[in-house]
Amino acid sequence: MIAPGATLGLLGGGQLGRMFTMAAQSMGYRVTVLDPGDQGPAGSLADHHIRTDYLDPEGLAELARLCAAATTEFENVPADSLRYLSEYCVVSPSADSVAVAQDRIHEKQFLAAHGFGVVPFAVVQGPQDFGGLGGALYPGILKVSRFGYDGKGQYRVAGPDEAGYALAAMGGEPCVLERQVPLACEVSVVVARDADRQVVTFTVAENQHCHGILDVSIIPARVAPALARQAIETAVAVAEALDYRGVLCVEFFVLEDGQLLVNEIAPRPHNSGHYTIDACVTSQFEQQVRVLCGLPLGDPALHGPAVMVNLLGDLWRRGEPDWRIVFAQPRAKLHLYGKHEARPGRKMGHFTVLADTADRALAEAMAIRGALRERAGLDAA
Ligand code: ADP
Ligand code: MG
Predict the structure, then answer these.
(1) Helix (H) and strand (E) counts in the chain
(2) Of the four, 5, 65, 69, 247, which is 20 to 30 A from 180 by CA?
(3) Given ligand 1 and candidates 216, 263, 268, which is best to mutate, with the most ligand atoms within 8 Å of its CB?
């Protein structure tokens, strides 16, 4: 066990890293962040910030020297950096797990090969690959295989001509073409799995996206108990197939006919698990610290229903939002990430509302969201 007082290393400096840093520091650990950015959400809170590229040999060597263990807060950290660090200290998740999740082609092939249901897809390495596909994948979504997030690097395409343009617009990078499927809803499950193969799962979240970005998470998801159980079992099976160590999120599509398909996996805590900070005995970030340090897993139990709403930069259109709107609700919890520049679509923070039922939490969260949007001159929807 790595005891409090030790220094933990974190690759990446965004809001997930900030919340990891807060959890680790409150348990008595020190945190060193390696991130090329200047004073990002995690770097500004960490005990130490190594400001280099993720592949910089000197930066990685310093992290390895300072830290008893290292983790990552986003999947685009090069797997090779994790591989290098694992020669010097405990690393979770492993480079191999991250390598699967950070490349859509690998991810889809891995899931399909292990028998998990995924949407019909094809690998597109270049324009020549569209020829043999036929019409079964249209209308489709062309997704760049690497470095896409929050709906970026995705184009909805009606047929092969549009797909060809979209591929060119993405610089001809390898892509996955997926059929656009009719969604009844989307759900996700956050799993924590340790070195002894112990697993805990958090309550299933129901996720609503807007323009490809998570907007609202409703917990527990308003789905049939059998479907929720299936999502949890599948998420655990994915973690086992990866021999995963750390915190993992599995995002699912629920189709109109009731089928449950795996959309994607994130090798880290997830936006749809932010509710765990305020609504669970142990947060997803504390679980990340626990697995990394070899501590027993914490209890993931939910205190009660919750709804999380993301706060995007659009809300800053007329300046800083009036936070009294959130504070006025005694069961709402505001989280801001300390980002200095509010750009449209940028995740600036979130709030979580706790209530006796998910529907009540949703109604109260929507009232707060509507008031914030109105102040910013956005339509309330
Ligand atoms: P990201 O990495 O940006 O989160 P996703 O693949 O999860 O990318 O896509 C973002 C959102 O776009 C999904 O949560 C879903 O709402 C929608 N979406 C993505 N793929 C499909 C699809 N094949 N059919 C229908 N909706 C989709
Ligand atoms: Mg997604």
Answers:
(1) 11, 18
(2) 247
(3) 263
